[in-house]
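Z., the sequence and structure:
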Amino acid sequence: HVLRLAFDKNGCRVLQRALDLVPAQAQVHLAGELKGHVLECAEHMYGNFVLQKFVQILPSEDIGFIAHEAEEHAEYLASHMFGCRTMQRLFERCAPDHLQGTLARVLTCVERLARDRYGNNVVRHLLANGGASEQRYIIRAMATGHDVVGLATCKSSSLVLEKCLEVATDGQHSAQLGAERAALLDVLLARADTGEPKGWVLQQIMLDRFGNYLVQRLIQCCRGDERERLLGQLKELEPRLRHSSSGKHILAAMRREFGPRAAER
């Protein structure tokens, strides 16, 4: 009766509560009733909570079937309103050897998932909780995308770019991500070959309602020579920044980070 309860508004709550009370052996037995039904459970508005619960409470070796069934539909689930939650829980709890296929499928479509309103949560979750190899792949994919301005001004992917900067600068594996971090900074601080207005890439994203938050994060994350490049561009663009609410937030972040140097001409 697990599936029937999982798909019921009240039943899913009762089932989750019961799972906290029954012995481990009973938990494993109840989870077994979901074999062959992982996809429909993951995409169900109530069932996904039950599936997440099993992933959270069972040992990694007992949820291998969930990872296996999710693997074939990894890209779909990562961009699904409810399925993305199960994917995040799997990345938290599953043994790496159970996730190789799932990770491979997700990482091959990083840019598309980053732009997706639900998929971006999975990508950011991997950045926050994944190993150096997953972080390296994601940052490289974002840095080498065909449209960095489009990524920076899209609500979902701008959040992914912010997380890329964070983990590459101060994350647990930041020491291993130097090349990827440098590539991402080079793209964000480059001159724009296309688009309007002409000039710096920064100029095309700084007044955008989402891009301005990325620029503020960039100010926080720049180090060494990058700071000088960024400060020089911001000073050049300051007249435009002064005349917009988004720009004023950037100027405030600039003053906090650079102090008196931000006012020098």
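The longest helix spans residues 225-241. The chain has a mean pLDDT of 93.

Let me know what you think.
H.
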